[in-house]
Structure prediction request, 533 residues.
Amino acid sequence: MLTEAKKTIQLIGGYFRYNLAASMEYRSSFLIQTLGMILNNSAFIFFWWVLFEHVGEIGGYGFQEVMMIWAISSTSYGIAFVFFGNVRRISKIIVSGELDTYLLQSKDALINLIASGTVVSAWGDIFYGLLLFIFITGGSLVKAGMFILLSMIGSTFLVSILVAAHSLTFYFGDAQGTADLIIEFMVTIGTYPEGIYQGASRVLIYTLLPTAFISFVPIRIIQSFSWYWLGVLLLAMVAWGTLSYKLFYRGLRHYESGNLIVNKL
Amino acid sequence: MKAVKILDKYFHIARVSLASQLVYVKNFFVRNIFFVFIIYIMLLLWRAIYGSQGNTIAGFTLTQMIWYLITTELVALTRSNVFLEVSEDVKKGNIAYLINKPYHYVGYIFSNSMGEVGLRFVINGLTAIIMGFILVGPLEEFSMIHLPMIILAIILGICLNFFIYITLALSAFWFEENAALSWIYSKLIFMLGGMLIPLKLLPNWLESIARYMPFAYVTYGPGRLAVNFSYQQFFEILMWQGGYLITFVLLALLVYRKGVKELNVNGG
Prediction:
C-alpha cells in the first residue's frame, strides 16, 4: 500500500518536472499566459470593490471574505490543472482512442492519464491566489500553511469531480460538454458569497456540485479553526475520490480500443 | 445595381454559414445552459443585495436590474469566435487562400460570422425573454412599441463588439501572441462596458470616463435602453453606437490593408 502511494507520488512528481521543463522552453509564452491570467482574474476584484462601495455585506460576506474565497478557489483550480492538466480532456482522449497508450504502461492508468498534461495558464491562477491571500491576511505563517493544505484538498475535489464527470463517457458517449459545464458551474458558484445560496441551491453545493468544500468550508476553517469542519472536509474528499476512481475503472471495462497509433514520448 | 450584386455575394456567404450552423442547432441550446445559469446566479446575488438595501439601487428596481443583466449578457454572449478564427487564419497562413478570392476578407469574415451570430441571437433572445419572465416577471412600464428600437440597439452592440474583436485579431499580422488583447478587451467590457454592473454604480470619475468609451455602447447602452426607454436616450445611444461602429469598421479595414502588405507566408 505504502509502496504504491510512493510510486504514485513519484509518477506525479516526474510528470510535473517534465511538464514544467516543457513549459519553460517557451518562456515568453509562459510569462504572457501567467500574467494574462493574473490580470484576467483581477477584473473580479474591481467588480466586488464597486459592489461593496454601495453595500456593507452580501450574504454574510464582506469584501475580505469574498477575496478569500477567490484566493482559495483560484489556487485550488491552479494546482489541479498544473499537476493534472489532462483531467480537462479525458473524454476527448477516450473518444479519440488515445487511451490505449496509457493502458499499456505499467502504471495506474488514471493517474498516468491525468498527470501527463499540464495547463500553463493555471500557474497564473496559483500566483494570483497566493498574492491575494498574502495581501488580505498579511502573510501569517500558520494561516499560509493552512491555506496551502486546504487548496490542495480543494484541488483533489476538483480533479475527483472532473474524473467522475468524464467517466460518464464510458457509459453514455462523449461527456466533454457536460464536464466543461460542470467546471464552469463549480468555479462560478464558489466565487459568490455562500449566503446567497438558500434552500435547494444550498443542498446542491454540499452534495452533487460540492463547491462548498472548495471555497466556503476551507475559508470557515481558516477564519476559525474547527476539527468538526476539517473532519467533514476530509471525509467528503475521501468519498468523492473513491467514487470517481471506482466510476472510472468500472467504466473502463466498457472501453473498446480505437486502433489509433500514438507516440507518447 | 453593382452594389446589389456585391451585397448579394456576402448575403450568400451568410446563408451558407447559417445553413451549416443549423446542422448543430442542438449545441446552441446546450451552450445556452451557461447563459441561464449565470443569470440565475446574478438573480441570487442581487436578491440578497436588494434584500438588505431597499427597493432601488442606482435607480434600478430588482426586476429592472435582472432585465438589464439579461440584455447585457445577451449582447456579450451573442458572438462567434471571430478573434480566434482571424488570428489563426493569419498565423497559420490560411489567409493566403482567402485574400485572392473575389471578396474582401473582412467582409467575408463578417458575413460568415453573421450566419452563426444570427442563429445564436434568435436562440439566446428567446431564452432571455423566457428567463426574464420566469425569474422576475415583466418589466414595469414596458411598451411593445419600443421593442424594435431596443432590438436595433442590441444588434448594433453585437456588430460593434464584432468589429472591435476583428480589429484586435488582425494585430496577428504583427504579434504572434495576441490572445492577451482579447482577454484585456473582454475585461474592459466587463468593467467599463457595464456588463455585470450598471455604470451608475461606478465611482463618479470613472463613470464619466466610461460613458465616452466604446465599451459602454456594446453592452451598457442596449441594457439601459431595455429597462428605461426614452426617445432622447435612444437617439443618443444610436449616435454613439453608429459613430463607434463606423470608426471600428474603418479601423479594421485600415489594419487589414497595412497588415496584408506585411504578410509573408511560407510554404503552402
In short: Chain A has one domain: 2-252. The mean pLDDT of chain A is 89. Chain A touches chain B through 30 residues (CB under 8 Å). Residues 2-252 of chain A form one domain.
